[in-house]
């Protein structure tokens, strides 16, 4: 079992909870009846467990997984940003501004030679050039921008493979 802390109480997830999470992570539109049929549990029990898991914040939301290629966004650019400083005020100002970039789909503060990694989806090199000029170069306190273009996607996982290991 895995203990998930929630405020002052702990929620213990068992193998059945993980089976529900696995099914929902594959297809969030599954009904409680369908889930119950697949794991040999009543739909009422599934609904109760799902509600507890949702209220604990383990399920953060339900989203549609979009095919970005079908939307014309076949290019993925990984952008490494180095800042002029790592002072709290510089980090905070950069973070306040980077979230305003409409082309950015992910930004993370990372360890190592780079301060931030940004993920951008584009339709072409010309579009990335435009994003680079209009969004990235105006970010505050940027010392260096390095861009890497994904040549081929090998694999994409929605959830870490170890999450459901043994569950």
Give the SSE order as H and E letters. EEHHHEHEEHE
Structural shape: elongated
Total number of helices: 5
Largest sheet: 4 strands, antiparallel
Q: Indicate the structural class.
A: alpha+beta
User: Could you tell me the radius of gyration in angstroms?
Assistant: 21 Å
- First and last CA, distance: 9 Å
Query: Helicity level, as a percent range?
Result: 25-40%
Strand content: 15-25%
Strand order of the largest sheet: 4-5-3-6
Regions with little confidence, pLDDT below 50 for 5+ residues: 1-9
On the 0 to 100 scale, the average pLDDT is: 90
List the helices and strands and how they pair.
Elements: E1 2-6, E2 9-13, H1 15-26, H2 32-39, H3 43-55, E3 75-83, H4 88-98, E4 104-109, E5 116-122, H5 125-136, E6 142-149
Antiparallel strand pairs: 1-2, 3-5, 3-6, 4-5
Helix pairs in contact: 2-3
What can be said about this structure in brief?
This protein is α+β, with helices and mostly antiparallel strands. 34% of the residues lie in helices and 24% in strands. The protein has five helices and six strands.
